[in-house]
């Protein structure tokens, strides 16, 4: 009997362009393959030991002859390549229509309404990197008390403000105003609070980020687990992605290593249920910033810590490792990339050396987790539990 599932999302660690990548401008993208090539190879002995290098189509990753777990890859069934779409699909939601994006900034009527409701002027209103927008407008925001509003290639409405000028709770209220405004055709996936500190020339974002996501359109695997009395422990931005729905308890994190620490903490205290972890640095710090060197180092650092997770697993635990989309740091631009995602499964109840092949739809993972806990099924996906159990 499986009592606990540890699901770790390596945010943006894709493994090669999907067949429809041309519709997204992502032909040839390959996050992990290109990162490995850029760095002259990667030292990932623990993921490789489970079967990472044996996944069909993966490039520049070492193969082992006697893998310890199951391995395969997943094809996103939804239309999109963003965080919310990917995570929602994992728990049962197939998004037919891509969430709205704003390559030219938000319409004037939205900005006007937001200014009226907050009583503060908006500056920015364009796609930008989070660090570059602070270099450009941080000093003006510091002097005027305006709100820096910006977006990206993702479906996001981001609000940046210096913590000494606009207290955190006030910034959160402005985000709630924006979330309530942005509905219908303008229902962005996330409104994000982006507080920062520092002086001109040395601004830095703080860990007080907060995401205000859309609610999923129907019940997810997390809801089904909750209805069955199964606890879901969320690590990182998981709670924000689902607006707390279906979550038993949650902790936010400062970085990837803190995310691993918090996952291990839950493994010590919560002996049953789902531990659902997102490690965001791959995407936020390195993918979007075209930093292939740090991306590779981040993968190697996670792999070192993966050994701790494996060593702390109980005999009735299973571990799933996957991703939500790609963000190839060697690819032109800073957008996410439409890619397959790798999938690894490890634990005593599971087969060793089993090739799961290619599964269409991340929601097969959610259906499998519902199956593990004997919860009611979600509306999309097929369980592959029978394939991977010994």
TrEMBL record:
Do the record's keywords include Isomerase? yes
Q: What EC number(s) does its UniProt record assign?
A: 5.4.2.7
Query: What does the record note about the cofactor?
Result: Binds 2 manganese ions.
Q: Which domain of life is it from?
A: Bacteria
Where does it mainly reside? cytoplasm
Provide this UniProt record's keywords sorted from A to Z: Cytoplasm, Isomerase, Manganese, Metal-binding
> Where does the record place it?
Cytoplasm
Q: What GO annotations for molecular function exist for this entry?
A: magnesium ion binding; manganese ion binding; phosphopentomutase activity
Its GO CC terms are: cytosol
User: Quick one: which residues bind Mn(2+) 1?
Assistant: 11, 324-325
Cofactor(s) it depends on: Mn(2+)
> What InterPro entries does this protein map onto?
Alkaline_phosphatase_core_sf, DeoB, Metalloenzyme, Phosphopentomutase_DeoB_cap_sf
Q: What does this protein do?
A: Isomerase that catalyzes the conversion of deoxy-ribose 1-phosphate (dRib-1-P) and ribose 1-phosphate (Rib-1-P) to deoxy-ribose 5-phosphate (dRib-5-P) and ribose 5-phosphate (Rib-5-P), respectively.
Q: Which HAMAP family match?
A: Phosphopentomut
Question: Which family, according to the similarity comment?
Answer: Belongs to the phosphopentomutase family.
Per its record, how is this protein called by name?
Phosphopentomutase
Give the organism the record lists: Clostridium intestinale URNW
């Amino acid at each position: 009997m499986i009592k606990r599932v540890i699901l770790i999302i390596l945010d943006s660690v894709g493994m090669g362009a999907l067949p429809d990548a041309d519709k997204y401008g992502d032909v040839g993208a390959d996050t992990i393959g290109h990162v490995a090539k850029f760095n002259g190879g990667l030292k990932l002995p623990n993921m490789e030991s489970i079967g990472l290098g044996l996944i069909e189509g993966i490039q520049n990753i070492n193969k082992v002859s006697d893998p310890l777990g199951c391995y395969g890859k997943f094809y996103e069934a939804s239309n999109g390549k963003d965080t919310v779409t990917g995570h929602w699909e994992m728990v049962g939601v197939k998004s037919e229509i891509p969430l709205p994006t704003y390559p030219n900034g938000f319409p004037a009527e939205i900005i006007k309404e937001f200014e009226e409701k907050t009583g503060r002027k908006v500056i920015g209103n364009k796609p930008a990197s989070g660090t570059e927008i602070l270099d450009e407008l941080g000093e003006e925001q510091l002097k005027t008390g305006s709100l820096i509003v910006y977006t990206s290639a993702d479906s996001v409405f981001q609000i940046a403000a210096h913590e000494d000028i606009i207290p955190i709770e006030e910034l959160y209220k402005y985000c709630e105003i924006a979330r309530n405004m942005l509905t219908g055709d303008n229902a962005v996936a996330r409104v994000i609070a982006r507080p920062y500190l520092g002086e001109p020339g040395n601004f830095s974002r703080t860990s007080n980020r907060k995401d205000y996501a859309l609610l999923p359109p129907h019940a997810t695997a997390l809801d089904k687990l909750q209805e069955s009395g199964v606890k879901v422990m969320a690590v990182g931005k998981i709670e924000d992605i689902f607006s707390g729905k279906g979550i038993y308890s949650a902790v936010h994190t400062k970085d990837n290593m803190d995310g691993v620490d918090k996952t291990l903490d839950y493994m010590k205290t919560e002996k049953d249920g789902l531990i659902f972890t997102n490690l965001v640095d791959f995407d936020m710090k390195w993918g979007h910033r075209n930093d292939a060197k740090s991306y590779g180092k981040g993968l190697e650092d996670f792999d070192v810590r993966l050994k701790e997770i494996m060593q702390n697993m109980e005999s009735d635990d299973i571990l799933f490792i996957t991703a939500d989309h790609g963000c190839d740091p060697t690819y032109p631009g800073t957008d996410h990339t439409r890619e397959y995602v790798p999938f690894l499964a490890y634990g005593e109840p599971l087969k060793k050396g089993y090739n799961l092949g290619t599964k269409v739809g991340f929601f097969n993972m959610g259906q499998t987790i519902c199956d593990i806990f004997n919860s009611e099924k979600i509306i999309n996906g097929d369980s592959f539990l029978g394939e991977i159990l010994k």
